[in-house]
Every structure is written in structure tokens, then in C-alpha cells.
Amino acid sequence: MKKIEAIIRKSRFDEVKEALHQIEVNFFSYWDVTGVGNEKQGHLYRGISYSTSDIQRRYLVVIVSDDFVDKTIETLIEKAKTGDVGDGKIFISNIEECIRIRTGERGTQAIK
Amino acid sequence: MDNALFTANNVWMMLCIALVFLMHLGFSLLEIGLTRQKNTINILFKNFFIICSGLVLYYIVGFNIMYPGDFNGWFSLSEVGLHLPDNGLTADYADAGYTYWTDFLFQGMFAATAATIVSGAVAERIKIGAFMVFSIIYVGFIYPISGSWLWGGGFLSDFGFYDFAGSTLVHSVGGWAALMAVVFLGPRIGKFKGKKIFAIPGHNIPLAATGVFLLWFGWFGFNGGSVLSADPASTSIVLVTTSLAAASGGLGACLSSFLVFKNFDITMFMNGILGGLVGITAGANLISPLESIAIGLIAGLIIILAVKLMDIIRVDDPVGAIPVHLCCGIWGTLAVGLFGNMAGIEQFFIQLVSILTIGGFCCFSASIILWPIKKFMGLRVSSKHEVEGLDIHEHGMDAYSDFSLNQN
């Protein structure tokens, strides 16, 4: 089992969600995050220009069994990519165990 | 005088009272919107304090100082509180325009405005106690004294000064005090570092925009009520010139902002609308619609230049109160000598001398109130409190306690 974390543009989120459902990755969590990155956004307020590197992104966490890892990553890259600086990153790490609270099932059975 | 006409006039004046009252909500929203969320409670608190204390003070002394009847032209306080004159509720009281009670409340609603203007300029760094002391003295005494010089029949009215609804007597009186208070206070932490100027964006532009719409709405009462009756000819032309000046003030600022900063800045647009309104206030009943557009456009340009000037001379005015109320107030008062029925070189100089007289008096009196406050009670919150926010340190609460996006 793997944990796939992805930081993506909010504007790509709906398409990513749709595509994940199509490859039958139906369960994941997400939240909005603020980060600092390479992208700079120019602002002008009352005649004074300033730029901020604080950027708004959406953070997804998907836990999948090993045979789903590759297609999940492919889908994320395909749907979240715009080609501009600031498309985000994907991190993958191992998950030791997964337990469904209702039934006590363990492992890949609990992920579905 | 026809009793029905008296009733109609009085109804219009009472409606205007309600409209001017609503301007206090407009000012509050504008100030909140253009400052940071950590100081929202503080701004609301100041605005409530101003209208509440202003009205009670106007009852105790303000109304009697401002409208003393026969007096020496400089200062008079013959009685305290309200005392209904024998003819106070009859058509004889004010050419059948309104009753004594209406008179008091309409003028009382104006009085607090002067301190509201100061509130915006000193936002985000003044101690609440210091502000309360300042606004009590300024609204209770300085505003009615300078007001009595013209509207109370004092020496400026003998001199020939003309200020229809208060470009100078209300807006500049507040604007001069705002300027002095900001000079005594200094800029907010983070506004100027060395030679660099930093933007400190307001946290809620839609709220500020609501405030500007409400102020425009309230100005129908501010200028419309200053006709002092429901006279069809005067009130209708006043509403037309007021609205056209507001519209052209907004357009003037919008265009100037684009030419100077290459940006359509909404906050400048809003300041421009208010600048146009302040600019028209001195001569709203004297000028033609075309002239009101000219006054508004120039007021819009003044806003952009004055905001830029404030940054250059290192005066930190978060909401643009000084450009709007002081700079456009001066412009509007001078415009009486340039446009409309009273235009002329002599009138222009009468206007100029009167502006300087009121300005000198306001700067002097604001300074002698502010100096001891700064010396003995402190004018400014500690830098820790300023950085963490006045809401939590001066009032012990948050404006949006379980709603927060980005706090900074």
C-alpha cells in the first residue's frame, strides 16, 4: 500500500477528481493549503506594486493498493499539468497498515 | 405660512436625518474594508463611540455653541442642553423649514462625521482610550466652534464665506485633525522601510464598496437636507449636482489611476466617488450640472495625486481620509469661487482666507489636544499589540472568531 500526496492547482481539481473516479480511485481526502514556491504573483494596491510568493493550492492524499499506484500517478500528471511553473508535486510513501473502523478489516480489503 | 408645506418640509428634513445617520454605517464599512481583519472590532468600536458620544455631546453643549443666536462672532455658550423656544414647533422657527427638534438632530448627525474622518486615518495603531479623549474634545467643542463662525452667524458669515453643506466646515475640519493625528502618530509598522514604500492591502473590498454605495446614498440627505426645506427647485438641483459630481469623481479617479499607475484600482475608484461628493458639498446649490461634472473630474484627479503625495511625504493614511476629506474639501470650497452663481476673484479669495482660518484653527486645536494625550497617556499602542492586532489586545476578541482564511 502506498500513500500518494499531490499538491495541485485548484483550477485542475475538478478534472483530477473526475479522472480518479474513472480509474476507480474513489476515496481520498483533500484540503486547501498556502505555500511558498517559485511562482510570483504581481499585485498593485493604491499605486504601490508588490509581489507575493504565497500561493494557494489544493493538497490531495490518496491511499491505494500497490497495483493502483502507477495509474493513479499517470492520471494525476495528465490531468494536473498545464506546463507552466507552479503545477505542483507528487510524493509517494509506504503505508504499513490500513484498518476499516466499522468492520475491523485490514490491508487492501480496507482500502476499497 | 401654509401648514401643509411646513409639515412636508419637516418630513423631508427628518428623512435626511435618517440618510445622514446611515452615512456612519458607510464610513464604518469603508474603514473596515480597507484595513486588516485584526483591527476590525477596534474600528467598529470607534465608530459606535463617535456617533454615541457625538450625539450626546451635541445635546449637552454642541448645538448651543454652534447655533448661539446673537453672539460676538467667535464663541458663545449661553446654555446647556436643549430648551424648546416658544416658537420652536411652529412655522415661525425657521421659515417653515423644520422644527427645533428636527434642527437639533439634523445638525447632531453632522457633528460626529468630523471624528469619523479622523478614525479612518489613524486606524490600526491608535490607543482606543486616546482616541476617545480626542474625539470627545474635538466633536464636543472644536467642531461646533468652527461651525458657529459660519453657520451660527459668526465672523466668517459676515466676511462672505460660503460653504453650503460643509466641504470645509465638516469634511476639512475632520481632514485637518486627521492630518495632525497621523503626524503625531507616525506610520503603521511595515508601511515604510528605508526608502521603500509597502502596500498594506485592505481585507474586505466588497465591504468597503458597500460602504461607498451607502455614503453616496446618505449624501442625498447630507446635501439635500442642507437646503433646510423641501423647496422643489433647490432640492432637486442639489441631488442632481451631488450625483453627477460623485459619478464624475469616480470616473476621474478611474481614468487618472489608469494613466498614472497603469491599473484600474477599485480603491481609487471608490475614493474618487467620495472625493467628488466632498468636492460638490460646498457649492451644490449654486452650480450647473455641467460644472458639477467638472468639479467631480478634478476631484478624482486630486485623489490620485494626493494619495501619491501622502506616500512621498511619508504620511500613512490607510483609507485615504486626507485625500478625500481634506484635499477635496479644500478644492470644493475653492470651487465656489470658480464655478456657479457666486464665482469671482473676490469670492475666491474670501474662500481661500476662510479655508486657511479654519485650517489654522483646526491644526492648532488638534495639536494642543494631541500633545498632552501623547505626553501623558500615550497615543499609540505597543509594537507587539500593533503587530498582533488591536482587536485582541484592546478589546480581547476577534472579529471573525471561527472564520478565517489568511491572517496577516
UniProtKB/TrEMBL annotation, chain A:
<dbReference type="InterPro" id="IPR017918">
    <property type="entry name" value="N-reg_PII_CS"/>
</dbReference>
<dbReference type="Pfam" id="PF00543">
    <property type="entry name" value="P-II"/>
</dbReference>
<dbReference type="GO" id="GO:0005829">
    <property type="term" value="C:cytosol"/>
</dbReference>
<dbReference type="GO" id="GO:0006808">
    <property type="term" value="P:regulation of nitrogen utilization"/>
</dbReference>
<dbReference type="InterPro" id="IPR015867">
    <property type="entry name" value="N-reg_PII/ATP_PRibTrfase_C"/>
</dbReference>
<protein>
    <submittedName>
        <fullName>Nitrogen regulatory protein P-II GlnK</fullName>
    </submittedName>
</protein>
<dbReference type="GO" id="GO:0005524">
    <property type="term" value="F:ATP binding"/>
</dbReference>
<keyword id="KW-0597">Phosphoprotein</keyword>
<feature type="modified residue" description="O-UMP-tyrosine">
    <location>
        <position position="50"/>
    </location>
</feature>
<dbReference type="InterPro" id="IPR011322">
    <property type="entry name" value="N-reg_PII-like_a/b"/>
</dbReference>
<comment type="similarity">
    <text>Belongs to the P(II) protein family.</text>
</comment>
<dbReference type="GO" id="GO:0030234">
    <property type="term" value="F:enzyme regulator activity"/>
</dbReference>
<dbReference type="InterPro" id="IPR002187">
    <property type="entry name" value="N-reg_PII"/>
</dbReference>
